[in-house]
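User: Can you model how beta-D-fucofuranose sits in this protein?
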Amino acid sequence: MFKQLMTVTAGVVIAGGLAACGSSSSDSGGSSGSGGSGGSGDITMGFAQVGAESGWRTANTKSVQAAAKEAGVDLKFSDAQQKQENQIKAIRSYIQQKVDVIAFSPVVETGWDTVLQEAKRAKIPVILTDRAVDSDDTSLYKTFLGSDFVVEGQKAGQWVVDNADTNDVDKNGSINVVEITGTTGAAPAIDRKKGFEDKISADPSIKIIASQTGDFTRDGGKKVMEAFLKSQKDIDLVYAHNDDEGLGAIEAIEAAGMKPGVDIKIVTVDAVKDGMTALSEGKINYIVECNPLLGPQLMELAKKVTAGEDVPERVVTKETAFDQEQAKQVLADRQY
Ligand code: GYE
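Assistant: Here's the modeled complex, given as structure tokens:
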């Protein structure tokens, strides 16, 4: 079983995660009422979701809800609207309701110890999903299921290095990068920046000339890009921490009378359908995949921890990356 869990491929997860999609609605505003997708199973899970900020997040929520139904897990679902205080409230309410297991995707890395200690005292196991916490006390959670965001940033940076010739769009010998980061303090924002910087440091002609948060939203990406276009000269490339921000940047670039993907190159992370469509049209140049379909693996882990079985402390999802040709090939089958 252990081995099976570790070797589930993205493909298998995709198939499983989409089999019973779109089954339930979610609460909002940090309340933690029943999300309605759970069956009448033995396990009750309280799931404190980050929000609904991106296409990735929507696919992730659907995957969790569908997998809970499939596994007969009674799911209590809450949407924190990207606010840590709402997630903390939701977790406290799950503790009060004496759920069997709490799963959550921490909006930012720090500030969780107190509420996680409360869960521990109540003997409710916690599973981190998608994003990690930064805490010295690893006994506060059983496992962390999700992507390696540093590797994602490295893949993006490596592509910029490997394509240095064409990325220097004005051919003046330097590649001026503007970075639209994810939510400040979030694991994927911290790690995607780090991984990217690791790789581009190999080529001194590549420079990040400006960096600002777009909060992982399309609107945020658009606003930040509008500001960059006013404040920066000679932008060659945008590195956006997710597709939605990149799609917002496309709108800003087009509104300024330029061609995204040509006059300014764009590299993003996620590979949701809208991003892949823009990639296939040549408006985005490269996308690093981040798999949102974590539901089936999460339910498998939940069953194990509630049964007192050992689980690996880290389960990393498998992912790839796409250029324009590859995007064209997989787009028709892309479900999210
Ligand atoms: O990349 C972004 C979302 O935590 C991996 O959150 C996730 C990120 C994802 O808003 O689109």
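A couple of observations from the model: The chain has two domains: 43-146+292-317, 149-289. The pocket of beta-D-fucofuranose is lined by residues 53-54, 56-57, 130-131, 188, 216, 242, 269-270, 290 (CB under 6 Å).
User: Helpful, thanks.
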